[in-house]
Structures are given as structure tokens and as C-alpha cells.
């Protein structure tokens, strides 16, 4: 690759690709019909020669079947807003369509997929800097990560519930779909480990399926931490089926998403700071593209949003198990 001291021209790219300058211009400006092979040759030649595109495009890689009402939607919305603010164009691509990357003029990539593995195949297939959300980095291949500090966030939620008088706190982590990628994500496994460590000698109550909820309730749990940005509605439904009220019978703290303040009652949450994560990711990606300064992984703290789904539990009342026979009138 040629150095950055001289601007590579369209004619040089055309010679490297074995096509005319007009064809290169059509590829760069997405005009007219061109075969996939021609587009690949031109884009590969541009990258090989060090051509600097006037239109900076970033690939935003999402899960094959994203849940846009949960984490995927919250993170994608923040990233798209930040890309627009920084005058980047976005190319949204499901992970199953990665081979199409060779046909696009891209400066870098942001990966929002939560399962690991992409970082291992990225460098050998696509010579582009990449920043991943919530997964692992691979610095030698210009792959970095941004994410939220799970230790701080899990402790923030559990300590808040304890401060409200709840001693037996359950941990809810069931999944809305069987193929939810977060199941194998290291952040999710770490969150469970952090909960178990926090419990110490106290008996933990992990609820990973609806049928496990009754065991936790019978064990005396008066509050639950619902992990993930897409699980609280299913959990609330299970409480309603059992005739339990929030927060009168059971207190709930979940992960923040856009609908959290609109629930009844409004949900108390811990929130990932998606706008700040997006700003950190795009700032890091710009540094990787321009090589202005050394990049580094970023972990940001969660924030607590106090609303109406947690009730202070007084030490001299409600010491038994929650009312499993239905609400008291």
C-alpha cells in the first residue's frame, strides 16, 4: 500500500483494477449497472493502492435476526445517530451477508453482534479497522471493543435493591427466542458470575426459565434483577399470571430501554449509556482510520434510573414469602 503523503488518483486505481477511469468513477458513485466482479476488483484495487474515498462509509454489522425492540435497536439507533453527526454513511449488513463487504467502498466497521468469533476471521478476510460492541478485541488486527462495565452495573442494581430492604434477590436471565445470540455472549455469562459472587454464602436464585420462578418465590425472593434489554415484559407477564403486583408484592429492576418509562409502573432500571458508547466507538474508529493516536478498549459505567417498580421493604413487615394466592384487597 502506498503511503499517505501523496493522494492516489482514480487513474491509478483504474490501472490497478484493469478497468477504465470511467468504470472506477461509476463504482465509486454507485451509477449504472456493473457486475459484482467488476465492483470487487475496483474496491480491492482502491484499498490496495491506498485510495482515500471522498464519501466515508462505515459497515454496521448486525445479527442475522436482530431484536430491534431490545439491545439491537438501542445500540443501532445510537450508532446511526453518531454516524450521521460525524458525516459518515452507514451500510447496515446482517452478519450472514459479510461476503458483500468486498463490493462496498468502506473505511471501517462497527459490529453490534453479541456472539464472539467475528474478530478471528475479520482480518484475514477484510482489511478494515473494526470496533465491536460488548465482545472481545484483537488489537494486532485493528479490532477494538467498547462496552459497559458489568461489574459496576450488576453491583449497582443489587446494592440498590439491598438498600431498599430486599435481602433475597433473584436473577432473571431467560431468553425470548431459542436462538438468541446473547446466550453465549461472555458479558451475559459474566453477569451471572457477578451475581453469584455478590450472593456470597446466601442462597442464589437464578431464574433461567419461567418454571424456575415459582422456586424463587417460594424461597422468599422479594425482588428480582432482570438481565438484558428485552426480557422484562415476559417476566412481568409471568408475575401477572401468578396474581402478583409490582411493586406491592414484588420489586423489579431491569435493563433500560426506550419503553422502560412507559410501563405500568414505570420500570426502575440500570442503563447502558448507548449514545456515549456510540461516540466512543466512532471516535476510536476515526483514530484507527487516520492513525492519529493509539486506540484502546473502552468500558463505561451503567446509570441507575429510579422509577416506580421498586418498593422499599420495611424490616418489620412482609417478612414471609410473597402472596402467591393473588393480590390483597
For the residues shown, what is the average pLDDT? 85
**Strand content of the residues, in percent?**
15-25%
Residue windows where pLDDT falls under 50 for at least 5 positions: 176-181, 324-329
Radius of gyration: 24 Å
Succession of helices and strands: HHHEHEEHEEHEHEHEHEEHEE
Shape: elongated
Strand order of the largest sheet: 2-1-3-4-5-11
Q: Indicate the percent of residues in helices.
A: 25-40%
> What class do helices, strands and sheet pairing give?
alpha/beta
Termini separation comes to 76 Å
Number of helices: 10
How does the major sheet shape up? 6 strands, parallel
Instruction: Tell how many strands the DSSP assignment holds.
Output: 12
Show the helix and strand layout.
Layout: H1 10-17, H2 21-28, H3 36-49, E1 57-62, H4 71-85, E2 89-94, E3 108-111, H5 118-125, E4 130-133, E5 143-148, H6 150-163, E6 169-172, H7 186-199, E7 205-207, H8 213-218, E8 223-226, H9 232-241, E9 251-255, E10 268-271, H10 274-290, E11 298-300, E12 303-305
Parallel strand pairs: 1-2, 1-3, 3-4, 4-5, 5-11, 6-7, 6-8, 8-9, 9-10
Antiparallel strand pairs: 10-12
Helix pairs in contact: 1-2, 1-3, 2-3, 4-10, 6-7
